[in-house]
Amino acid sequence: MSEVSSNSHSTELTSQYIAQVTGDLERNAKEQERVGAEIEALQEQLRALRHDHTVLVNMQDALGGPGSTPGAEAAVAPSVPHQVSAEPKQSKGKKAAATGAKKTAPKKPAAKASSVKASTAAAKPTLVELIRGHLEKQTEPRSAAEVTTALTQAHPDRSVKTTVVRTTLEGLVAKSHAHRTKQGSSVFYTTAVTSEPAPAEPQQETVSD
């Protein structure tokens, strides 16, 4: 008898648990349906809001009004000038280096040219030496025009002008290296006698040595 009563009691408990679990499952399923419906409604509202936002932004851009996009462009804008300004500095530096190389490169040829000119100038006698040498060879007085003609014929590669020759002759007269005589309106020049002792100077130097 006791075994039969215990079995019936356990059966009642099991049926109660089954009924409770079944009720819980039904409530859970209904709650899922409700939350799912709310989520779908919210998603639909979100899609509608996004669509409206896109339309409004396009309208704002078309009207040229202030918006979030110009602000973004303004935030990005400062970085662009730095990048752009950095490139001209490098290009200037390269140009400056290139021009500096061009400027420094011709210095060597210029130095060579100047040395060549100096050597050629040293090899060629000066106009003063030519005039003095010409007067020393002459036995009669010579005018500035005659000296110019003689030097031009003797040195065709040099440009000899009468005015320069006359100025040089006057300089020799001032230094007592030449004499000036006037015949009428013409002026003639001869070598100075004082120029003859010039070779004596090396003799004195040799004696001192």
Structure write-up:
By secondary structure, this protein is mostly helical. It has a domain at about 120-195: Winged helix-like DNA-binding domain superfamily/Winged helix DNA-binding domain (Arc Repressor Mutant, subunit A, Orthogonal Bundle). Helices cover about 75% and strands about 5% of the residues. It has 8 helices and 3 strands, in the order αααααβααββα. The chain has helices at about 1-65, 70-75, 80-105, 105-125, 125-135, 145-155, 160-175, 200-209, and strands spanning about 140-145, 180-185, 185-190. Strands 1-3-2 form a 3-stranded antiparallel β-sheet. A hairpin with a 2-residue loop joins β2 and β3 (about 185-190). The protein is rod-shaped. The relative contact order is 0.04. Mean pLDDT is about 75; it is low at about 70-90 and about 195-209.
